[in-house]
Amino acid sequence: MTLRGIIFDVDGTLAETEELHRRAFNDCFAAQGLGWHWDQHRYRELLRVTGGKERIARDLTDRGLDPAAHDIPALHRAKTERYTALMAGGEIALRPGIAALIASARGAGLRLAIATTTSRPNIDALIRATMGREASEVFDVIAAGDEVAEKKPAPDVYLLALERLGLPAADAVALEDSLNGLLSARAAGLRCVVSPATYTRGDAFPDDCPLVADFTDVSTPAALEMLLREPA
What we know:
The chain contains ten helices and five strands; from the N terminus they run E-H-H-H-H-H-E-H-H-E-H-E-H-E-H. It has helices spanning about 20-30, 40-45, 50-60, 70-90, 100-105, 120-130, 135-140, 155-165, 180-185, 220-230, and strands at about 5-10, 110-115, 140-145, 170-175, 190-195. It is about 45% helix and about 10% strand. It is of the alpha/beta class. A five-stranded parallel beta sheet has the order 3-2-1-4-5.
């Protein structure tokens, strides 16, 4: 394996964002007078569904309500506005090891990408809030969930990232925090290193999945390559 590119998931991987997402959903529901509230247990269940609009639709279905009776895209846009405002207020930080890995990989000439189910405004807001730069200044390629037909665990977003990077899957590695992310990366032919986050620590990762407590364990390309060479 010749490591020439690193592809990052966003939520749970670049940063522990899910609690902020949950707060933004609940703030939005309250502002709309909807009377809905997602506690941590319910949100953990909904995270099995990839995509914010899809989670709202699932929740409505589970409540016996008709998703078509609500303007879910508009509701999700309002949630995104609230989420970006919370991040802009400084209520988020990169996970340990991520900034060091990005800097080290850049110095080594590797290409960097994002492959995520989240939307581009969320990505941009996160990078501005945590790195003080535009996402396009940090990453060579950004593939977002609203650009593909099927979200994770389908491979679409990783295949799009690889296409834009101009790299074969064998020359890149994905960083993830969830089982859905791992399945998506592997379906695209990528090797994947996983560091579970708050809402994914209970995921049933396969025995051959390289797991790290946090990304400080793989904060350089050399450390990543060494881990990937280790027998499962």
